[in-house]
Amino acid sequence: MSDSVRGVSLMLVATLLFALMTVFVKLLPDIPPMEVVFFRAVFALAGCHYFLARARVPVLGNNRVLLFIRGFSGSFALVLNYYLVQQVPLAAASTLVYLAPVFTTIFGIFYVKEKVGPLQFLFFALSFSGILVIQGFDARVTFFHLLVGLSCSMLMGVAYNCVRKLTTTEHPLVIMYYFPLLCLPVTMIGMLFSWHTPEGLEWLYLLMVGMTGQLAQYFLTRAYQIAEIATVSIASYTSIIYTIGFGFIIFGESFNAMTYLGMALVVAGIICNVLWKQRQGKSSVILAK
């Protein structure tokens, strides 16, 4: 089996697990997003700490300021992501945060001096138009949800650019470690104002959020390690298929033709950008989600 096939296979597994994670988040409508993220962070912190100890890597890293920015931006992005999952249909929630690669590239112009061609801005406009179509033709997605999705994507763009910068100075496990390390205090403060004691199956769903999220992160990282970035990045957008399927089967969610068109425009714009960067030889690794 070639590295490309292995990489795509691992990414498909990771994407499926991430989709399952959102299912369990949506099964927790009464648990505030801050609380769900807290339990996710507990699992992630334990897993990262275990592997750091095995690898005998110092946990605090070198560029701590940038590590903190990555951790905080990633934490708030995940809270907004989980909020969307709980509030709107699964596939719509996933699509609203698909603009993270767009903001990663835009912020990269100023942060890592990334060069962006005029054609890329056309692809960005295509993706943005898809978001507007979804918001305009699906009454379940309000303008506020649109703003939350854009804010989430922007924060993810900040986090990804930090990762791109940190890969030259930090061990990948250290970069991953700072995310749950800062997630815990951030969400603990939030939980002071909104706490819901889990009951019955809610404990199981919280457990599954943590397990599926951590396993997905592992397979995602392995996919990026063994195959070309552009190839596995495109494979990651199969998540829209998973979320449409899970949303329909488990939650009875369906969409009108214009909403499906909006989703297709978003994905098409992102994939065109990835392919363009691959052709130009500018693809870069993002080992975080």
3D architecture notes:
The protein has 289 residues and is mainly α. It has one domain. It is built from twelve helices and no strands. The protein has helices at residues 3-26, 33-55, 64-87, 90-96, 100-111, 118-137, 143-166, 172-191, 201-226, 229-235, 239-251, 257-280. Helix 3 (64-87) packs antiparallel against helix 4 (90-96), helix 3 runs antiparallel to helix 7 (143-166) and helix 6 (118-137) packs antiparallel against helix 12. The longest helix is centred in the C-terminal third of the chain and has 26 residues, at 201-226. It is globular. Residues 282-289 have low confidence and may be disordered.
Termini, distance in Å?
26 Å
Outline type: globular
Mean pLDDT: 84
Q: Please indicate the percent range of residues in DSSP E strands (runs of 2 or more).
A: under 5%
Number of individual domains: 1
Q: Percent helix among the residues? A: over 70%
Order of helices and strands: HHHHHHHHHHHH
- Structural classification: mainly alpha
Number of strands: 0
Largest sheet report:
none
Our Rg estimate from Cα atoms comes to: 18 Å
Which spans of ≥5 residues are poorly predicted at pLDDT below 50?
282-289
**Number of separate helices:** 12
Task: Put the structure in a nutshell.
This protein has helices at about 5-25, 35-55, 65-85, 90-95, 100-110, 120-135, 145-165, 170-190, 200-225, 230-235, 240-250, 255-280.
Blueprint of the fold:
Layout (H helix, E strand, L loop, with lengths): L2 H24 L6 H23 L8 H24 L2 H7 L3 H12 L6 H20 L5 H24 L5 H20 L9 H26 L2 H7 L3 H13 L5 H24 L9
Helix pairs in contact: 1-3, 1-9, 1-10, 1-11, 2-3, 2-8, 2-9, 3-4, 3-7, 3-8, 4-11, 5-7, 6-12
